[in-house]
Specification:
Elements (H helix, E strand, L loop, with lengths): L1 H42 L3 H8 L11 H13 L11 H10 L4 H17 L2 H6 L1 H18 L7
Helix pairs in contact: 1-3, 3-7, 5-7
Length: 154
């Protein structure tokens, strides 16, 4: 009987995790659309930077170019996920996630990742060098998603 429950729990966990993959894939697609449209023109993005985003979720991908951070910041602003003071616009982040299929539990976990990553930087550090800060936050966010096994198969 215990074995049956373990199998049921495993299946439920897999199904639950799979929904995270779908949500993360959908949000990644939305980021990609913004990268290829307004941010590509605004920032004169090279193919190398665009390729970095195509490989964003690969565990062996190193994100170390400042331009990647500038692009993340551009996308966050275009999607209105951050305000003019570089602070998270929580209602918009929640709306963005819901629009891409996230449930309440995932939203809470997602916001926890974002808040943990932002705690590392003080407000003055974030405003001093936006591109480098955004790059650091993006790498922290990726790490948090890998730890939660949310990385989509893109």
């Amino acid at each position: 009987m215990l074995t049956l429950w373990l199998v049921i729990l495993s299946v439920c966990s897999y199904t639950h995790s799979k929904s995270h993959f779908v949500v993360m894939r959908e949000m990644s697609k939305q980021f990609g659309i913004v990268i290829l449209n307004p941010c590509k023109q605004k920032l004169n993005l090279t193919e190398n930077i665009i390729q970095d985003f195509r490989n964003f979720w690969r565990h062996d991908q190193v994100l170390d170019k400042k331009e990647v951070g500038c692009t993340v910041n551009c996308v966050e602003k275009e999607l209105k996920l951050i305000d003019s003071n570089e602070q998270l616009n929580l209602p918009n982040v929640v709306e963005f996630m819901r629009a891409n299929g996230a449930d309440d539990e995932m939203i809470i976990n997602f916001l926890n990742i974002l808040q943990e990553c932002r705690k590392v930087k003080s407000e003055s550090e974030i405003s001093e060098d936006i591109c480098s800060s955004s790059l650091e936050l993006a790498n922290c966010f990726r790490k948090g998603c890998w730890e939660r096994h949310w990385v989509p198969d893109i």
